[in-house]
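Protocol step 4 of 6: structure prediction from sequence.
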Amino acid sequence: MTTKTIHANSQSQKPSSTLDVGVIRWLLGRFRNGCIDHNEYDGLVEHLHDCRRKVQVDLKEWRAEVLGEAAEAGKSYYRRQSKDDD
């Protein structure tokens, strides 16, 4: 089985989300060919939950890094509203 990865927009910064195309194709094939049993479904759901947790951790780390860099540069991460924006 050949696996390819799809990365987020190359111009964007961290985090880079990665999908295993082979796994997606396998899952689609399973659903097209009929029902999957409960154990396979539970495994899929657990895998998706694990992926979500990893992405959340990556986002928290990325946000902390960006806030740290902004603090070092003496800038605010958040856009300040001017009186003209109101």
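Step 5 (inspection) to follow. The beta strands are 5-7, 18-20.
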